[in-house]
């Protein structure tokens, strides 16, 4: 595990991520059921463009997304209080010094060796999450991908909306999915770098 200790969304953070698959986008490589994602080619071309241009396109950010970012410290402190732990913040984590792919956790609990994914959601979304009382499928790949990157056996998911109870789900490794992801991730990286070399010769 290779940790980059920088502020998330800083200039260094964006530079380190450039052209590298991230756990938050692993669902663009394979789905939660282990099937090749329909977004695979588009995501690959996006990363190829980042490598060749040295720039990343700014993604769409809604007011709700901005509000979620602003409330991250609040939800992190709430999680620390409920679980009686200290959450360490890092910029990103790579599996090794080769830095081919990464995750950018909302924190990890160093004393117990597990990671944390925080989601600050709309109240109506939180109601649905609380009633389901399980990890939302849309975050399965990110959570399992983060365990793939770090080698951790546990990753906690915590969603929160002010005025409502938080939802905390303790997640563990799905080895079948992780092995499938490792195979497809290696194939993705090989193909991506091949395209980069082809385009550099034009």
Question: Measured on Cα atoms, how large is the radius of gyration?
Answer: 17 Å
Number of helices: 7
Indicate the CATH architecture: Alpha-Beta Complex
* Total discrete domains: 1
For the largest beta-sheet, the strand count, sense and barrel status come to: 4 strands, mixed
What is the arithmetic mean of pLDDT? 94
Q: What is the highest CATH level, the class?
A: Alpha Beta
Euclidean distance between termini CA atoms: 36 Å
Segments where pLDDT lies below 50 for 5+ residues?
A: none
Helix/strand-derived category reads: alpha+beta
Q: How many E strands?
A: 6
What is the chain-wise order of helices and strands? EHHHHEEEHHEEH
Strand content: 5-15%
Shape: globular
In short:
It is built from seven helices and six strands; from the N terminus they run βααααβββααββα. The chain is α+β, with helices and mostly antiparallel strands and 202 residues long.
